[in-house]
Amino acid sequence: MSQLRARIDLDAIAHNTRAVKARLSEGTRLMAVVKADGYNHGAAEVAAVMAENGADAFGVATAAEGSRLRESGVDKPILAWLWSPDDPGDEVTEALASGVELGVPSLVHLRALVAMEIPARICLKLETGMHRSGIDEAAWYEAFSLARDTPFLTVTGIFSHLARADEPDDPANDLQAANFARAIEIGRSLGLELPVNHLCNSPATLSRPDLHHDQVRVGLALYGMNPLPGEYDLRPAMTWAADVVSVKPLAPGDGVSYGHTFTADRQGYTAVLPVGYADGLPRAMQDKLQVTIAGRRYQQIGRVCMDQIVVDLGDNPHAVMPGAEAVLFGPGAMSVDEFADALGTINYEVACLPKGRTRRQYR
Ligand SMILES: Cc1ncc(COP(=O)(O)O)c(C=O)c1O
Fold it and tell me: For ligand 1, what atom is nearest to the CA of residue 227?
């Protein structure tokens, strides 16, 4: 067993998938977003469980992620929305050959596909107000017409992404929603069927059932993290844990770790954990991290090193020994949200932290 692990609770993934599915408007399909290796939970493993528990389709970022997911055995629709039109190359060809659908976020992308002259299922990504990627409104007519008139392209629908879905009452959401609805009308008036259109991510799926359309694209919530304040019956799926490698005494005046930023003011004990910034634990978490050992929290002290951190055991009243498991975040320990607040970031980023020598373990 690895000394440093991300334990993934597949029962939690199953539960969350069913819980989100149960909230969808009648007839709305669930696209499970498993980009970035399933938000760092392992795309192949979580996708298999999501597929069994209600996911109707999968969303990834890159074409290569799409091909890998297909190779892992997923036989439901897969949409990949991040690829380069300059040189679509092997990654795009392979993805299309394995039946991965491509998101088309600009007219340049669409023209590149037309030039490739190979059959492709596409979903047009439209700019509705996020101003990151998407076909600008001025090009909607041209894009719809070109897609319609290219016989080897099959348009499954349109999609767009909300910039402020985590602020459900912000008028920007309604503005984007209105633009999206208008785009569907225009596309259909030009003769496209547009059977599967989607706008909502996790926060919008949970807070705006009126915007569900034919499909929602949900990532964060399926991994058990809350996209919004509130209770949504989600179970966190990831636990990041390390085994104590040594316990040693500390005398008053002893300085700990680089720069001696911590100096002991009394007799005590410390534990060393085999995790550092090379494994994704930010150096900026110094003094903000509390690890949980056998249900009790202990303060991390001194600088976070490349491979190690030191934890203050006090008098070590609970006899922590080498080999004990210390949880950095997860159920029963610092939550992902607590960790994110301490670091000044969001839960999405915290889930993506564990790397380096972290090994995944499935339960
Ligand atoms: C285009 C797109 N759709 C859907 C999602 C899923 O978002 P969430 O994790 O909030 O559900 C993402 C993730 O950022 C995305 O980039």
Answer: 10
